[in-house]
Amino acid sequence: MALIIATALAAGVAPAALGGATALAAPTQVTGAAAASSGTVVQQGGPLVVPSGEEGPVTTRVKVAQYGATSERLQARLLLPSIEYNAGDEDHSFDTSIAATCAVNGGAFQPCPWGSGDWGSVAVLPTTTTVNDLTYDIRLDASSSARKYGTVTATLEVLSEEGVVHARGPVSFTFVQGTPEADLRTTVLARDKTGVLWQYPSSGHADKPLRARQRIGGGWNAYTSLTTLTYRSAAGEGDLVARDKDGVLWYYEGSGNPDAPFKPRVRVGGGWNAYTAITGRNRGLVARDKAGVLWEYAPTHRDDSVIFYPRRMVGGGWNAYTAITGQGAGHQAMARDTSGVLWSYGYPYAPSGGPYGPRVKVGGGWNAYNALAWTQKLDGESYNDLLARDGSGRLWLYKTVYRDNVSIPTTRKQIGWGWEIYNAIL
User: What pTM did the predictor assign?
Assistant: First the structure.
């Protein structure tokens, strides 16, 4: 499919994100000698590199020299070519992933509203009274989804209200991967041996996936189990549950504040000391009892303290595993057996009566690790990654591939050391 994303001083309706629906009249289409450009357009410094993410806006300056123009008000437009995109992209719309402001001749920046017209998606540049030389400053602020556009070369035209083109030339933008916005980056939580809970926001970059840790608070040694319920983001989103030493389960809802990411706890109920393992699954829980029977607690999706439906038995034999880690925001799980073999459980597409489909063998040697935990979007490249800590305190990131209805860890990369100070990682 082709996405037409032309920017122009012209036409169309501006989305609400850029100031509401504003109808703009398209310039007259002129052909022949009247449409011929007699001026020049020069982009200073070459193509503008635009980080797609939270870096903020960047600006390019365009110098326009005109010849033979009469004194009148001038319009300007950027015309972009068709751009091919993958239909599976998160965002197919140029005008929703790029915010633009523009200035002419050193004036104040103002929104360049996007709309649609004969050229596709369009943006409006400020008008001005004709002078021999013009300066346009074009400032773009791109979201993470804009990186898919790559290099885009537009045509800047300066024309009269009657549609006579006085200058025409190329203006290029190169969209590169920046730092994903906070709500697109996850966090890793770790509790140290003194009971302090820390969060490591992901960076969104493969070379150094974790940022410096941030202290959440103390007193978390009161809990014998910590489990993620939902996707956690660096924007302070994400829920978890914690079981205390008396077997009471507590619910911590994400606050949306990265500096204090959890709201005050809410009591779920007692009796959870019956379980030897608790892990998340798609906003709910699975729990293994002392006899090796696995139970599922499906989420109610309610806003009150009734967090889960009554438990439902999955099946026995789960004492074969020494570690079970599930996806709080997803449907999959990894389980390591007593011989060190790792197994992957996926979503049961065929009706099975349980939370998981048939297991798939990953491989042996996983007894080298004393902690396993799922993570998502840690380096901006994958949704289903696995963290593993070895006996020396080194932290490893396993990239995964989706095969046979499950996620399979493949290559690993060390992303930290000194993690032996933590007694829980999630």
Answer: 0.81
